[in-house]
């Protein structure tokens, strides 16, 4: 499923399309086990987009720059793909399960911890 979803993202990005809502819930699998990306309601053409007004967003799948500055790019889709891969390998578990939106924002946007070794 990861390879199929990655191929779909590659196709979208080669056509300068940002999906902006990549998640397992938006991937369909047909009988031949081909993955199709669906739900293009938040998608935009181009390689960069800044959200101009507040809207409800799926925070658990968003990149740090999207959470902090409402900036979307092809790179933020790649971050969301990483969360999608987590969903796949965790047998459908929701990312950040049990966390509030504020807790997710704090965890995703904080600086990497300092190495202690």
TrEMBL record:
Pfam families membership: PK_Tyr_Ser-Thr
Originating organism: Nippostrongylus brasiliensis
Keyword ATP-binding: yes
Coiled-coil parts of chain: none
PANTHER family: TYROSINE-PROTEIN KINASE
Protein name per the record: Protein kinase domain-containing protein
Single Gene Ontology MF annotation: ATP binding
Domain Protein kinase positions: 1-117
ATP-binding found in the keyword field: yes
Keywords: ATP-binding, Nucleotide-binding
SMART domains with a match to the protein in the record: TyrKc
């Amino acid at each position: 499923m990861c390879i199929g979803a990655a191929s779909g993202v590659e196709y979208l990005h080669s056509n300068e399309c940002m999906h902006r809502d990549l998640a397992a819930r938006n991937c369909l699998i047909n009988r031949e086990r081909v993955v199709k990306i669906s739900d293009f309601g938040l998608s935009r053409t181009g390689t960069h987009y800044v959200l101009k007004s507040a809207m409800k967003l799926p925070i658990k799948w968003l990149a740090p720059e999207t959470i902090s500055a409402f900036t979307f790019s092809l790179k933020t889709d790649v971050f969301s793909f990483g969360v999608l891969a987590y969903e796949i390998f965790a047998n459908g578990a929701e990312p950040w399960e049990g966390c509030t939106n504020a807790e997710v924002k704090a965890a995703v946007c904080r600086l990497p911890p300092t190495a202690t070794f």
